[in-house]
From TrEMBL:
InterPro entries referenced in this protein's UniProt entry, alphabetically: Aldolase_TIM, Indole-3-glycerol_P_synth, Indole-3-glycerol_P_synth_dom, Indole-3-GlycerolPSynthase_CS, RibuloseP-bd_barrel
Residues annotated as transmembrane: none
Top-level division of the source organism's lineage: Bacteria
Alphabetically ordered keywords of this record: Amino-acid biosynthesis, Aromatic amino acid biosynthesis, Decarboxylase, Lyase, Tryptophan biosynthesis
Record-level GO BP terms: L-tryptophan biosynthetic process
Substrates-to-products reaction catalysed: 1-(2-carboxyphenylamino)-1-deoxy-D-ribulose 5-phosphate + H(+) = (1S,2R)-1-C-(indol-3-yl)glycerol 3-phosphate + CO2 + H2O
Organism: Fervidobacterium nodosum
Its EC number(s): 4.1.1.48
Pathway where this protein functions: Amino-acid biosynthesis; L-tryptophan biosynthesis; L-tryptophan from chorismate: step 4/5
Protein name: indole-3-glycerol-phosphate synthase
Enzyme kind, highest EC tier: lyase
Sequence ranges assigned to domain Indole-3-glycerol phosphate synthase in this UniProt record: 12-240
PROSITE patterns given in the database record: IGPS
Length: 251
């Protein structure tokens, strides 16, 4: 494995700005209602999402122009037809904070995330044990990467809350085994979480009505992917969602 110093040096060749935990700072406060706009080429539940005309650079620029707080880039190849090169291309195309979304379970994936320009990595608690969450989370933080740690079941939070480094918690309304989305299930989880934990709602956000469901719990933000990728006008759709969330944040 490359040394921390080597990885940091390589990382600085890619970044246009010093990282300084920009992703965490963007979502550390509850009630800010930011939006993480996601680029993915396909999904297991919806099939192909990006056509040959949908260049990553153009989608990223639409998201940035529409007011996204951060970006999510899906790099998994097996299920989403993504690539680690997509992360590097996104980094070259924007200065927004970028989340690398993948099934991360190995230290080398954390290291390559730093080298290829991620600001944050996703850890899915349901596919990791408590020691793996702690080990990978600590390594990420040592490499100046922020953490979005995802749960679907409330019980998984027991693994997450043992982390000794800052993190943003994600509640995924999608069951990754069945692919079924349930906002009711996610709301029950959210209701039982501490109100001071930075919180992102993931999956199934298609319209302002979905955002409104979670508004009473003042999440830090929403991760929106499939509905944006399927839209015939991503800029317009995201602009409307951003305006709605900004109005919510004002109270």
């Amino acid at each position: 494995m490359l040394s921390f110093e080597t990885i940091r040096n390589e990382k600085q060749k890619i970044y246009k700005k010093e990282p300084s935990h920009r992703f965490y700072k963007a979502f550390e406060k509850r009630g800010t209602f930011g939006i993480i706009a996601e680029f993915k080429r396909r999904s297991p539940s919806q099939g192909e999402l990006a056509s040959s005309q949908d260049s990553l650079e153009n989608v990223v620029r639409d998201y940035e122009s529409a007011g996204a707080t951060a970006l999510s880039i899906l790099t998994d190849e097996s299920y989403f037809n993504g690539s680690i090169d997509d992360l590097a291309e996104a980094r070259r195309s924007t200065e927004l904070p970028i989340l690398r979304k993948d099934f991360i379970c190995l230290p080398k994936q954390i290291c390559e995330s730093a080298v290829y320009g991620a600001d944050c990595v996703l850890l899915i608690s349901e596919m990791l044990d408590g020691s793996e969450v702690e080990k990978l989370g600590t390594l990420a933080y040592e490499l100046d990467l922020d953490l979005l740690v995802e749960i679907h079941e409330l019980e998984s939070y027991e693994k997450v809350k043992k982390l000794k480094v800052p993190y943003v918690l994600g509640v995924n309304s999608r069951n990754l085994r069945t692919l079924h989305i349930s906002h009711q299930h996610a709301l029950e989880v959210v209701k039982n979480l501490p109100t001071d934990v930075p919180l992102i709602i993931e999956s199934g956000i298609e319209a302002v009505q979905d955002i409104q469901l979670y508004a009473p719990y003042r999440p830090s933000g929403f991760l929106i992917g499939t509905s944006l990728m399927k839209s015939t006008n991503r800029y317009e759709k995201l602009s409307q969602l951003v305006q709605f969330t900004r109005d919510l944040a004002k109270g």
